[in-house]
Amino acid sequence: MATAVQPFEGTYELDPNHSSFQFEIEHLNLSTFRASFAEIDARLVAHEGAVVLEGEARAASISIVDPAFREHVVHGDDFFEADAHPVLTFRSTRVELGDDRTATVSGELAIRGVTGNVEASGTFAPPTTDPFGRSRAGLELRATVDRRTWGLNWQVPLPDGSDALGWEVEITAHLELVEQA
Known about the structure:
Elements lengths: L9 E5 L5 E8 L3 E6 L3 E8 L2 E9 L8 H9 L11 E11 L4 E10 L2 E16 L5 E12 L18 E15 L2
Antiparallel strand pairs: 1-4, 1-10, 2-3, 2-10, 4-5, 5-6, 6-7, 7-8, 8-9, 9-10
């Protein structure tokens, strides 16, 4: 990463209409299953050179259409257990921004009441003024995690002995943030 810069100062809130939080995982060694969460929130607070990024997603807002499959993923003890743990949360422990617009964010992701460390990398767009006079910034992050870290252990063997569902999950966050007055 290039030299660290600090283009942010103040508090920036998520614009949920222009942001997304998604994940993808290999399914049956045939395809990649992708899903997103409709109810998300995030906040970036920058003060005197320190930056903290926090975010959350409501498990029940996952983009699964089939009711039985959705029920199993959202409420089942193999997956999100949303009755006991309705929100997935993230809080950064380190945010590094480079003058080449690269970003590295380390932090703690909590799913099902289990907290694991995550490091994401990507890019940022420094604050700029939108057509309505508000300051906006962008952050695009990607991380790959092992779902077993959070007790997401569901698995079934395929006839050839391989796993039906991949262990690695790719998480992406596309955040458009609006400075608060």
